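During the reporting period the student researcher (J.K.) took over the structure-prediction task from the postdoctoral fellow and processed the backlog of single-chain submissions. One of the processed entries is reproduced below for the supervisory committee.
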Amino acid sequence: MTGTTGAVAAPHFLATRAGEEAYRRGGTAIDAALAAAAALTVVYPHNTALGGDLVALVRTPDGTITCVNATGTAPAARDAEELRRRHGDRLPTRGPDTITVPGAVRGWAELRRFGAALGWAAQFDAAIAHAADGVPVARSLAAALVADQAELAADPGSAAVFAPGGRFLEEGEPLVQARLAESLRRIAAKGPDELYGGSVGTALAAGLQAAGCPLTVADLAGYAARVTPAISASLQGFRVHTSPPNTQGFALLRTVRALAELGSPDVPAHVLARLFHDGTRVRDTLLADPEFARTDVENDGFAEIVAELRSGAPRPAGAAATPSVPRGDTVGVAAADSRGFAVSIIQSVYDSFGAAVLEPETGIILQNRGLSFSLDPRSPNVIAPGKRPKHTLMPVLVTRGDDVRWVTSTMGGHGQPQIHAQVLLGLLGGRTPREAVSAPRWVVGPRAPGDRSDTVHFEADVARATVTDLEGDGFPTREVPPRTEFLGHTNVVAVAPDGSLTAGSDPRSDGSAAVVVPGTH
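J.K. obtained the following structure tokens:
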């Protein structure tokens, strides 16, 4: 095992460093990805936390690719009628009514079963040290603290951690999370059940109930990750693998399938934009937990959109829509090694700092993923006890024959399928991982008041011909600064046909990428 070469890329350099150390201690790509994922819950708390979710793909040396879906469920006491009486037709953006059961830690335990070489506790070493000793506030976190001051100041737990002494921390100042460090130590020492029913879980549930959330110890103890085969589609001799519903992975595969039917991935920007807009339509209307509602997200309207693109028919304008801004909600870790393990992990608290509820006894931030549920009783995604909401997280692996070629992971909220598609097309076109994640990008969908469902936000350095093509097809466009986190950040590991590894981390984040060769430090 000590002879394993491994690559890892993450959106914070300290998380990447934790993954590197796991390789040097004899770990596999699974160990490296988990160490990075745990560290991120400390150094990037606006994006991920012990109180958040996880979706991952893991590839084992025998070529099997499996999805670990650790998306949280609605608490057993959630009552849709009560929520409608208090909130009308839509849940609030933050607060106790948006909290779902945390899934990430249970997801870590499931991932380990596929080939972790180091002990459970080893993946927590860096995270515990960073929480106890403190880390400098990163650029992305500092921006989130400015943007979310009002919500965080209103929550005593958040204010105590992020505004010690009454002033919010600024970039470079030390962030110390003593209570979180203790929770991490207990989970490291006693295993995942310490959160799912042990002393940490008991304290967490008690604190949330005091804050008005009905989550109980029984909700935590009864939670299980869903382990299923990945779903996939082919394009030009490659196979793209991702996560099935309740996640939006299907939207990427609809684009891949359409490009295959059109005969080439080399299509004008407006063709991609039409596919992106159509995938969003299906996600917003049909995506739900398949154990509660079975809908045909893979095929609904697919033949029609392909026929429309072949005919060159005019495109109807998009409707007015509610903005969806992927600000500080998600992290992605990519890892692969010379033994044949590969992992794409996506973790999230949904909005920046999730529900803006930090349970003070445990130091754990809770996600507001419940906001993704509908309160419309006619919706397949209507909230119900034990149900998982429609979900944005979607890891990706790409194979050619029996071999992994790329591991990709991205932040970007509802834009994740579109970001993955643009990065993958760059990789297929010969870009290196670094070039692919750094390239200018654009995303279809509402992100500001007044936007339509088909509004395109494009980075200022996107080619003018691309913008002209989009506008020529009737897409409203809005320019944003280049390399902005507003349009997500991505990490990629590439495995060449000879087995050599390269990696790239998005300059839109605070991350880094590394390849660890045996005997190097």
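The committee noted the following: Residues 228-326+394-516 form a domain with the Glutamine Phosphoribosylpyrophosphate, subunit 1, domain 1 fold (CATH 3.60.20).
J.K. will present the remaining backlog at the next meeting.
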